[in-house]
Amino acid sequence: MQVFGLLGNPVEHSLSPPMHEAAYEALGLDARYVTFEPAPDAAADAVESAATLGIAGLNVTIPFKQDVLDAVDPDDVARRVGAVNTIDFSGATPKGYNTDVAGVERALTHHDVVIEGRDAVVVGAGGAGRGAAFALADAGASVHIANRTVERAESLAADVPGATAGGLDTLDRVAEADLLVNATSVGMEPDEDETPVPAEHLHPGLAVLDAVYSPIETRLLREAASAGATTVDGAWMLLFQGVEAFEQWTGRDAPVDAMNEALRAQLD
Q1: For 47-93, what is each residue's pLDDT tens digit?
Q2: What DSSP assignment string belongs to 168-221?
Q3: What's the gap between Cα 78 and its chain centre?
Q4: CB-side exposure of 81: number of CA atoms within 13 Å?
Q5: Less packed terminus of the chain by CB within 10 Å, N or C?
Q6: Catalytic annotation on 65?
Q7: Parallel, antiparallel, or unpaired: how do β-strands 230-232 and 207-210 relate?
Q8: Which pLDDT tens digit goes with each residue over 173-206?
Q9: Overall average pLDDT of the 7-11 stretch
Q10: Rounded to the nearest 10 degrees, what angle do helices 16-27 and 234-250 cross at?
């Protein structure tokens, strides 16, 4: 039996276990997905212990995505983003990946959203914002990063090829943009009445991905749909980062429908 798992603190409410277990069941794999919750300063030791125990792969979540960088051999994407959320133990040295980037790209393309050559605005310059900005730029979009703290947006833009940056006063750029990604927690329960982008900037022809998945339909997505925009909820991003991790670990195409059904059953 292969054992995969999640490294984080806390992990008790994670949606990853049912999503991955559904994939194993759908494909008849002899595998299990478990959770590990080490002390906040013990990420490197936890990775070493996982390797010793024969764990096949780990997802990594808050607060360890940056901490495990020095404990693995990160690929180019993880190195540029500065965070690892997936570890593969199949080689001599644990290999680190960032599947959040693929999660953004695959969530959009699954909904037939074209990225290449488009103008995109990413709201937020934290971990999710970094993943979104790199995903869009790597897929050929021109990226503008808007963040409450301008200096943080500028720091991220300096790492992302061709990106520009500004404060929240630059959100009027959404009115001329093709893509919008909310990579902040604005609109998350219990503050679901809030939105990161004024409705006046939303328009037909815009595609909106909201990283928030609790609630599934945020105020931003409701107002975007009313404006005639294409909407993609945050569960799709969560799903496809898990799909990417599954495919990295197993070398098999993930049963996307089964994983999506299990994920949304938990969210419901």
Answers
A1: 999 999 999 999 999 899 999 999 999 999 999 999 999 999 999 99
A2: GGGGGGGGG-SEEEE-S-TT-TT-TT--SS-GGG--TT-EEEE---SSSS-HHH
A3: 12
A4: 31
A5: C
A6: yes
A7: parallel
A8: 999 999 999 999 999 999 899 999 999 999 999 9
A9: 93
A10: 50
Query: Going by C-beta distance under 8 Å and a sequence separation of 6 or more, which residues neighbour residue 48?
Result: 71
Q: By the 8 A CB rule, do 180 and 174 touch?
A: yes
| Catalytic residue selected from 65, 118, 130, 144 | 65
- Supply 237's token pair: 């991003």
Q: What is the maximum alpha-carbon separation in the chain?
A: 55
**Mean pLDDT for the stretch of residues 113-117:** 98
Residue 49 CB partners (closer than 8 Å, separation 6+)? none
Supply the DSSP string of 249-265, one letter for each residue. HHSS---HHHHHHHHHH
N-to-C CA span, the chain: 31
